[in-house]
């Protein structure tokens, strides 16, 4: 079956079962040794269960297919494109010359109409100081800013698709791991109950085995809920909430650890961020507005030509009138002052955006370095130690030197370490996407919300944004992400 009519590649079932780069096969062998020791009947169950968890080949969404769907269906991209068209319309309108005026005139000297004159007039406003060109130049920067917002919004959508794809991929692999965990716990409970019936273990061992099974069942339920939420969030940002649900393809735990260096990342962000370029375009727009307001201090002239025919005296006249207001009281000083203040504010906004991006990058880099250390430590030390601890516990149990509770505790530690490994890789991949994607997230926000906000230590970014909106802040000061908590 092909979800939503798109061609999807199939993957081999063995590849889908590779949940860990290290430790997995040895863990299964170790657990098998434990239960082989407990009862021969469990060995056959272990082999049949291991075969049962292999997923059948099925259609899977690829990241590229999800991206293509999002570019076609996410409504914010259409909104951003419409904003560009609106800016182009404004640029066209402000550059149009005023329309001429034409009219008819007639005068009657007495009620009988014996003496009268009639004629026509033509009027035209003459724009001075190249105001139309200056207005077009100013609005051209708004068109540029709209294009930059469109680019930023497109990148936000693509980044969000990949972030939520990684969430779903991590949930898939965690659920597969949870299934294995439940199977081992069920076999452990069965073996312990048989040993208890044979009076070889205590009631406490049976209770501990039951507790472990119930605990891993809760973990499995939580992972299933996470998987459902991850799928819903993914198709929301794609813009197709009704597409056929299917797993996503890919391997979360393969490849090299992403490497990022602060100075190089910051330099690339300053050079490439559409948010910073949009702030600069906005500053240029207000500089153009200031020049236009200065030019507006010189009034436009009015030209009027009147052609009239006196029918009583049988002669014609042509009159020409040119008028212009004298800027004695109104010299446009208020608008000039406002435009100057807007120019200063826009220049400060460039610096604010740069500092906010740097602040946001600092928080993102903290997450990157933390998740990188977690992956490295889990891979190199914690997982091998947890595996060795499980082997030691099995050996000690077989030699009657440790209780079954010790084995269960070792298993629990190994399970948790593997789940933490998947979570750490998920976070590392996600934060790497944010860094490579110029910190642009929030693919369900209007493009006009897309300016950077500083990170919020000790609190969610979403709450800070909502507070800012409730306080009536201008939209140009709002951050890039609103619908997620960061």
Structure report:
The protein is built from twelve helices and four strands, in the order αααααββααααββααα. With 486 residues, the protein is α+β, with helices and mostly antiparallel strands. The protein has a four-stranded antiparallel β-sheet with strand order 1-2-3-4, with no helix packed on it. It is elongated. The two termini are 35 Å apart.
The coarse overall form would be elongated
- Give Rg in angstroms: 36 Å
Helix content: 55-70%
- Beta-strand proportion: 5-15%
Gap between N and C termini: 35 Å
Kindly name the structural category: alpha+beta
- Main β-sheet, in a few words? 4 strands, antiparallel
Question: What oligomeric state do these chains adopt?
Answer: single chain
How confident is the prediction overall: mean pLDDT? 81
Please provide the ordered H/E string of secondary-structure elements.
Answer: HHHHHEEHHHHEEHHH
Number of E-state strands? 4
Low-pLDDT segments: 1-56, 451-486
Number of helices: 12
Strand order of the largest sheet: 1-2-3-4
Q: Which terms summarize this structure?
A:
alpha+beta, 12 helices, 64% helix
Short account of what is shown:
The chain has 486 residues and is an alpha+beta fold. The chain has helices at residues 13-16, 24-38, 40-52, 63-73, 75-94, 131-197, 203-238, 262-272, 274-296, 333-398, 404-436, 461-470; strands at residues 101-108, 116-126, 301-310, 315-323.
């Amino acid at each position: 079956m092909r979800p939503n009519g798109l061609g999807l590649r199939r993957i081999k079932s063995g590849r889908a079962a590779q949940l860990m780069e290290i430790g997995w096969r040895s863990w299964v062998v170790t657990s098998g040794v434990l239960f082989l020791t407990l009862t021969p009947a469990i060995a056959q169950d272990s082999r049949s269960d291991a075969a049962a968890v292999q997923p059948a080949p099925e259609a899977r969404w690829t990241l590229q297919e999800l991206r293509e769907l999002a570019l076609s269906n996410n409504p914010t991209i259409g909104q951003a494109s419409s904003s560009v068209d609106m800016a182009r319309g404004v640029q066209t309108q402000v550059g149009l010359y005023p329309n001429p005026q034409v009219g008819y005139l007639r005068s009657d000297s007495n009620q009988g109409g014996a003496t009268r004159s009639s004629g026509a007039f033509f009027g035209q406003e003459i724009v001075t100081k190249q105001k139309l060109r200056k207005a077009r130049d100013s609005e051209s920067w708004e068109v540029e800013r709209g294009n930059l917002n469109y680019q930023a919004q497109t990148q936000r959508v693509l980044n969000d698709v990949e972030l939520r794809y990684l969430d779903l991929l991590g949930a898939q692999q965690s659920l597969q791991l949870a299934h294995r965990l439940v199977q081992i716990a069920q076999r452990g409970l069965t073996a312990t109950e048989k040993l208890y019936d044979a009076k070889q273990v205590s009631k406490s061992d049976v209770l501990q085995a039951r507790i472990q099974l119930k605990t891993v069942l809760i973990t499995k339920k939580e992972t299933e809920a996470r998987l459902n939420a991850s799928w819903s969030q993914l198709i929301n940002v794609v813009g197709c909430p009704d597409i056929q649900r299917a797993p996503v393809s890919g391997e979360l735990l393969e490849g090299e650890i992403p490497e990022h260096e602060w100075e190089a990342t910051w330099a690339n962000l300053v050079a490439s961020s559409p948010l910073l370029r949009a702030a600069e375009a906005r500053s240029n727009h207000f500089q153009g507005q200031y020049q236009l307001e200065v030019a507006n201090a010189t009034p436009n002239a009015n030209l009027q030509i009147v052609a009239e025919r006196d029918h009583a005296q049988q002669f014609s006249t042509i009159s020409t009138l040119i008028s212009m207001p004298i800027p004695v009281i109104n010299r446009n000083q208020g608008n000039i002052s406002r435009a100057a203040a807007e120019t200063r504010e826009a220049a400060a906004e460039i610096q604010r955006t740069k500092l906010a991006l740097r602040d946001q990058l600092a928080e993102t880099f903290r997450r990157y370095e933390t998740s990188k250390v977690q992956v490295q430590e889990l891979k190199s030390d914690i997982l091998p130690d947890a595996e060795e601890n499980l082997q030691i516990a099995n050996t000690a149990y077989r030699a009657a030197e440790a209780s079954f509770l010790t084995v269960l505790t070792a298993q629990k530690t190994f399970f948790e370490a593997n789940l933490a490994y998947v979570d750490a890789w998920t976070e590392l991949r996600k934060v790497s996407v944010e860094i490579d994607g110029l910190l642009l997230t929030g693919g369900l926000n209007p493009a006009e919300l897309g300016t950077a906000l500083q990170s919020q230590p000790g609190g969610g970014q979403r709450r800070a944004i909502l507070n800012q909106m409730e306080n009536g802040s201008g939209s140009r000061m709002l951050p890039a992400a609103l619908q997620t908590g960061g």
